[in-house]
Design goal:
Layout lengths: L8 H10 L27 E12 L2 E12 L3 E5 L6 H7 L10 E9 L2 E2 L7 H7 E4 L10 H11 L6 H14 L3 H4 L12 H13 L5 E5 L7 H14 L4 E5 L3 H7 L2 E6 L2 E7 H6 L4 H7 L5
Parallel strand pairs: 3-8, 3-9, 6-7, 7-8
Antiparallel strand pairs: 1-2, 1-4, 4-5, 9-10
The chain binds adenosine-5'-triphosphate (ATP) and magnesium ion (MG).
Length: 295
């Protein structure tokens, strides 16, 4: 990685010539230059591959030309100041933005090699393959059991009641809610505490065995014990699933993720191995954010 202060245009050009493909150049240290992502946006075996994604709410642009791969079986953390577009970008990955009337998404988003914005694509199975857990728990107005059984039922994943019971139990166990919920499975999910509701929503998401799990600040309403349980779950899930998690907690990003993506004002400023992003960021804006000088 180049070091030292850039003093002239010639020096800038030289540095660009020495490391043009990785983008690992301190040129990006100019805080006002963030239109080009620093770091490797592409990976060898992407599970999802995004190219030139723009998102508009009406005529206001919220995401600018973001390109990024998410590798198979990786946990990628998305961080950045409030309003920088983390949730907006995450919602593009399973077409959740379709539910917002004024929202328009352009660019290409591939799951494996399939364009998820293809007009012929059915979003119901897509959202089973790419599940999402929101910041605010949103259990259905149904029993705890039916919340978890809902997805497996509509996608025909169980052939018998015994099998469905098993999926419900396993999902609740993995989400760390089984002990608290096992004697009240027939009671409404909305009667659980906020943290329990969040774990119920996680159980509901994993019950359909998604390939990709999107998590938007999943622990912001949880106490440290429940947070630790979710982080353990992420660790368990990473061997079979691909996870993208938005978090405001640097510690959480550092604990759970392989790579970290830093967003700023709708741009993807930098992406890299989590350890590198937290110990040796290449962009001034990333550095300012992780050291608490911004956001
Ligand atoms: N439904 C919406 N309608 C209009 N504008 C929206 C909508 N949702 C988000 N925005 C705008 O898009 C931009 C990005 O918002 P987004 O919620 O994606 O940010 P964020 O990084 O997730 O922030 P936070 O950390 O606070 O959750 C903001 O300017 C926001 O006001
Ligand atoms: Mg958000």
């Amino acid at each position: 990685m180049p070091s030292g202060k850039i003093t002239s245009v010639t020096e800038q050009t030289n540095q660009l010539q020495t490391a043009p493909s990785t983008g690992e150049t301190k040129l990006a240290n100019r805080a006002n230059d963030y239109s080009q992502t620093v770091g490797n946006i592409r990976v060898d075996s992407p599970k999802m591959s995004m190219s030139n994604v723009d998102v508009f709410y009406g005529d206001k642009q919220a995401i600018f030309d973001v390109s990024l791969d998410i590798a198979k079986n990786e946990v990628i953390a998305m961080i950045g100041p409030s309003g920088c577009g983390k949730s907006t970008f995450l919602r593009c990955l399973n077409r959740m933005n379709d539910t917002i009337d004024i929202c328009r998404v352009s660019g290409k988003i591939l799951l494996e090699h399939e364009d998820i914005y293809d007009a012929k694509l059915d979003v119901v199975p897509l959202r089973a393959r790419v599940g999402i857990v929101f910041q605010k728990p949103n259990p259905f107005p149904k029993s705890i059991y039916d919340n978890v059984a809902y997805g497996p039922r509509i996608h025909g994943l169980a052939t018998s009641k015994v099998e469905l019971d098993e999926i419900v139990e396993t999902s609740l166990k993995r989400a760390g809610l089984w002990n608290e919920a096992k004697d009240r499975l027939d009671q409404p999910g909305t009667g659980l505490s906020g943290g329990q509701q969040q774990r119920l929503c996680i159980a509901r998401t994993i019950a359909v065995s998604p390939e990709v799990i999107l998590m938007d600040e999943p622990c912001s309403a949880l106490d440290p014990i429940a947070t630790a349980r979710i982080e353990e779950l992420i660790d368990e899930l990473r061997s079979n699933y691909t996870i993208a998690i938005v978090t405001h907690s640097m510690q959480q990003a550092a604990r759970v993720s392989n790579r970290t993506a830093y967003f700023h004002l709708g741009y993807l400023v930098e992406v890299g191995k989590t350890n590198d992003i937290f110990t040796n960021p290449n962009h001034k804006l990333t550095e300012d954010y992780i050291t608490g000088r911004f956001g």
